[in-house]
């Protein structure tokens, strides 16, 4: 309970003065503790509200704070801010679709042999992610009203409304119309789905009280604010380090995305180890959707007062990586059961993305 409060205190004291290595070291340690705290409190809330609401709460909470971080860094100005939103969102998509998914499938399969999930629900999530990514990150390269991977004002407004509509439609499907498609599933020895997992008989403790869940929800929010705030404190050091190493500026977005998505990554891996890969996939694909469906509308509104261009279109290398990821993801989810190889394939794609971000 004390970690989120400590993280906020460190954030306040380090916000104006963080140029000494000892301060940055403390910020780094507290950042790691804040990430672990966010995971703990998210799991408490998830245990109270059940799936898929638990994974949804963490995905949306992290993404809302991530959007705030993107806007803050864009307001700092500079020559590279025009592509910051694109690079950060794309990094989040690649980390979720390949990193979180790959690690969850690999750990789950190594521990349980085969892992199973509902292909219908997961497939609809993947389809929504593909539509969002294509509309916001690929299509700007092929329109003619603006140049350089940019949307015109009217096109940006349309993309923002369409993105938000897709995200809301999926939320309605996930939480109201077809909630059972996104619940952890039971399976036989061959990995074939046999029904929904009986969460009351899996050895877990009783759900926390309403008061405990409310307290954890508040501490979750404090932890997430601390994670992003401390990441913002560390961002100048990250930027200077990236520049001194001669890496492209897009690497900054990758590093920030990794830090922000750390709570979801840890939560997904823990669920995979408990044979709840469906929850892990809910976290991964839900985070990818939220990263686009909430970020683009917010950036569209922010462009009212932000100056400079907004480049959303991916470059050629990024598009190729996205296409390969989409194709592999489709093959992964189509049968509803996978073994360790699929997880390893996704992790190789993540490694390729990270390497090509450093050496394009």
UniProtKB/TrEMBL annotation:
The keyword Transcription does not apply. InterPro entries: Alkaline_pH_Ca-Antiporter, NaCa_Exmemb. The chain crosses the membrane at residues 20-41, 53-77, 89-110, 117-139, 151-172, 213-234, 246-262, 283-306, 312-331, 338-358. It is a multi-pass membrane protein. It is found in: Membrane. Keywords: Membrane, Transmembrane, Transmembrane helix. Pfam families: Na_Ca_ex. Residues 21-175, 218-358 form the Sodium/calcium exchanger membrane region domain. Its main location: membrane. This is Ionic transporter integral membrane protein ChaA. The lineage of its organism: Bacteria, Bacillati, Actinomycetota, Actinomycetes, Propionibacteriales.
């Amino acid at each position: 309970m004390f970690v989120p409060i400590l993280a906020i205190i460190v954030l306040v004291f380090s916000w104006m003065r963080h140029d000494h290595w000892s301060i940055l070291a403390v910020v780094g340690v507290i950042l790691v503790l804040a990430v672990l705290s966010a995971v703990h409190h998210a799991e408490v809330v998830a245990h109270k509200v059940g799936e898929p609401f638990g994974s949804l709460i963490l995905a949306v909470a992290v993404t809302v704070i991530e959007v705030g971080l993107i806007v803050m860094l864009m307001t700092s100005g500079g020559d590279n801010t025009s592509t910051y939103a694109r690079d950060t969102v794309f990094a989040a998509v690649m980390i979720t679709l390949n990193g979180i998914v790959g690690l969850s499938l690999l750990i789950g399969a190594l521990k349980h042999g085969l892992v199973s999930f509902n292909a219908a629900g997961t497939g609809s999530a993947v389809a929504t992610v593909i539509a969002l990514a294509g509309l916001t990150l690929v299509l700007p390269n092929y329109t003619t009203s603006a140049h350089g991977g940019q949307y015109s004002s009217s096109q940006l407004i349309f993309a923002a409304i369409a993105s938000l509509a897709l995200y809301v439609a999926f939320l309605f499907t996930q939480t109201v119309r077809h909630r059972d498609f996104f619940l952890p599933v039971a399976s036989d020895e061959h990995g074939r789905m046999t029904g929904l997992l009986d969460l009351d008989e899996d050895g877990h403790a009783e759900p926390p009280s309403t008061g405990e869940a409310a307290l954890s929800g508040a501490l979750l929010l404090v932890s997430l604010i601390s994670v992003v705030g401390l990441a913002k404190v560390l961002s100048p050091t990250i930027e200077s380090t990236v520049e001194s190493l001669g890496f492209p500026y897009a690497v900054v977005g990758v590093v920030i995305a990794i830090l922000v998505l750390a709570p979801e990554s840890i939560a997904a891996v823990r669920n995979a180890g408990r044979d709840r890969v469906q929850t892990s996939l809910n976290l991964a694909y839900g985070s990818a959707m939220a990263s686009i469906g909430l970020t683009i509308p917010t950036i569209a509104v922010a462009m009212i007062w932000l100056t400079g261009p907004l480049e959303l279109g991916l470059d050629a290398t990024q598009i190729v990586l996205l296409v390969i990821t989409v194709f592999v993801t489709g093959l992964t989810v189509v049968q509803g059961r996978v073994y360790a190889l699929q997880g390893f394939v996704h992790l190789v794609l993540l490694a390729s993305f990270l390497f090509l971000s450093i050496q394009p």
